[in-house]
Amino acid sequence: MSTSRHTFLLVALLLAGLHAWMAAGVSPRLSPAYDETAHLIAGTTYWRDHDYRLQPENGLLPQLWATIPLVLDKTIAYPRADDPAWARADVWQLGDELLYRTGNDPGVILQRSRAMIALLGGALVLLIMLWARSLFGARGGYGAGVMACFSPTLLAHAGLVTSDTAGALGYTAAILAWWRLCHRLSPGRIAAAGAATAFLALSKYSVAMLPFVVLLLIVTRILHPVALPSPGRRLIKRSQKFLALAGASFAAAVLAWGLIWCAYGFRYQARGPATSDSAGFTIPWEKALIKTPFSLSQNMADGSAPPYHTVDIKPGVIQTVVSTSANFKFLPEAWLYGLTFVDRYSRSRLAFFSGDWRITGWTAFFPVAYLLKSTPTELLFHIGALAFIIGGARLSASRRRLLYRTTPLLAGLFVYGAFAITSKLNIGHRHLLPLYALACVLVGGVLLPALAKTAWSRWQAALVSLLLLLHVLTSLHVRPHYLAYFNSLAGGADGGHRYFVDSSLDWGQSLPDLRDWLQINAKGRPLNLSYFGNGDPLAYGIVATRTADADFDYAPFRPSFPELKPGLYAISATMWQRVYTQVRGPWTPGYEKRYQEMLRWLRASSSGTAPIPLHDAAGNLMPASALPDYLRDFDQLRFGRLLAFLRTRQPLEIVAHTWLIFELDETSLNTALYENNPVGPAQGAKHRAESE
């Protein structure tokens, strides 16, 4: 290896290590992101009990990888074996118990497991740099490395125990391995393609997109000009290429199939050897396979059912393939179940986007997320690289060769981008991670025009250097809140909640920042909290009255109807946009009517008079057993009415870009909850328009 290659490899390893350190180093500043608790308990269960029923939809491999430090630590305590949550595969309850109810140190558990995912993030940066160097030379590799190393998007998810970073690594590696296989058939390259495909299949079900990419690569390779004199000989040569590639592809696919079986211990059944026969998946196979088509709708707290909350769910290609595969036990049960589970919930998933709520998604969701959550340098370099590579293909033979060599990157971007835009699963910008990885490789192409020895190229080189520096400074400025990064088009990170929430901004990760702010600013004032996430505020020293977030509170004891008090109100961005409550949009006459009905019932019940029967929004009599749901609906209606009042005010402060802080005295609180009617003329008109 030459000195220059040694130098490049050393710099690449340093940048990869720096990326891993930056991602893992912010762990003490982050409470669990929503999905992390599920990954932690699922991974440890895979190791300990070989029970693959828990969380199969999120990839076996990253969950196993992340929890290696936990299973090696014999002091870690686990939920009781007789806990009913095991039988129903309730990863959320079990994950909460692992972190907060068994005496473990949640900070230590998270930091160790996050460090393992950060290593995968470092591996992704290294792969990006090596691929970029092979296309654009050492300087191109360095540029791609800086872009990847400091990308807020890549850093955000390399520091969390989820499968997103592993999926991006697997997708990038698989595309590269298959492209290399297309150019030279050898046992080593067949093995690499099969192993990379298995890695992706065991990390993310985005492996379903890979065959489309591979098909494009094979077609491109076969149609690549063949230097032979006669058309007949060229046809023969291309036929030979096709047959050879078909055979190699089959061998790689068989290897991937075998590795998937190996990961599950060559066992079809998802239940562990010691798991009760009565234990099942989160939802039964029959529901996952949609044996009976149904219409899914979600009524609001006032009894209405907005049309954008209704969708028909019917079995499709995935259900047919999975049913057939399960009948023949072609793949492990847990992997097949995970695939159909992902497909089922990708058909309808509630999400928020720029003031709107839907379960069927928006074609603009991911394009706008990319536009608002990419750094200015990423936007300029990604567009510039595509323009340079595609637009310059007609200029010279060398540029056409470059276009051909970047075919796998362009194919991967096109296929994944097409799936993303048409997807109904619009719950997070994180699903674009593979696109950022591929785009980072292409960024090396931006540097090529700046390498020519001309006066103009020196100006280009200076501009590229300044943009790279801007990218680095942007990343350092937002640290440690990588997940909450938004560029100036969105009004910065504090303005992001107007467009996206959930895993694009507020995934429950900011409890430590709220704690620190309260220690300085609370001054003994009572705290009312509405929190989206799986962290336990009490574990971070946050004592509060929680409201409208019962679905995310796993504490053993929670008041069924908490009383709101004057003082501080801390509302996480996802709750502020009411994504997971039954009161969305403007406060309508229907909401107000139902709220007043329930308020009268509560006041009468608390006065000690004879019990009043419960009635739903349509006036139908409800059984006494429905009281918990009745109180939950009232809690959410009260929260919706409170937010209608708070939206007329500026927050006292926005903490960590995700917490909106308000202060209400007794008069303001009474006005918000009991006195004024938030249904204004504009809101009433909007409601009538929506109803029509």
Write the layout of secondary structure elements.
Blueprint (H helix, E strand, L loop, with lengths): L2 H23 L10 H14 L10 H7 L1 H5 L11 H4 L3 H11 L4 H44 L2 H7 L5 H20 L3 H15 L8 H14 L7 H33 L21 H4 L5 E4 L12 E4 L3 H12 L4 H14 L4 E3 L2 E3 L6 H9 L2 H16 L5 H9 L1 H16 L10 H10 L1 H4 L7 H24 L32 H11 L5 E4 L14 E2 L20 E6 H4 L12 H18 L7 E2 L5 E2 L4 H20 L6 E3 L3 E6 L1 H10 L5 H11 L1
Parallel strand pairs: 5-6, 5-7
Antiparallel strand pairs: 1-2, 3-4, 7-11, 8-9, 10-11
Walkthrough of the structure:
The protein is mostly helical and 692 residues long. It has a domain at 510-691. It is built from 28 helices and eleven strands. A five-stranded mixed beta sheet has the order 6-5-7-11-10. A hairpin with a 5-residue loop joins strand 8 and strand 9. Helix 9 packs across helix 20 (433-442) and helix 19 (407-422) packs antiparallel against helix 20 (433-442). The protein is globular and about 100 Å long. It starts with a helix and ends with a helix.
Count of DSSP H/I helices = 28
**Strand fraction band?**
5-15%
SS-based class: mainly alpha
Global Rg: 27 Å
Number of strands: 11
Largest sheet, spatial ordering of strands: 6-5-7-11-10
Estimate the mean pLDDT confidence: 90
Summarize the amount of helix as a percent range: 55-70%
Query: In whole angstroms, how far apart are the ends?
Result: 71 Å
What general form does the structure show?
Answer: globular
Mind summarizing the main beta sheet? 5 strands, mixed
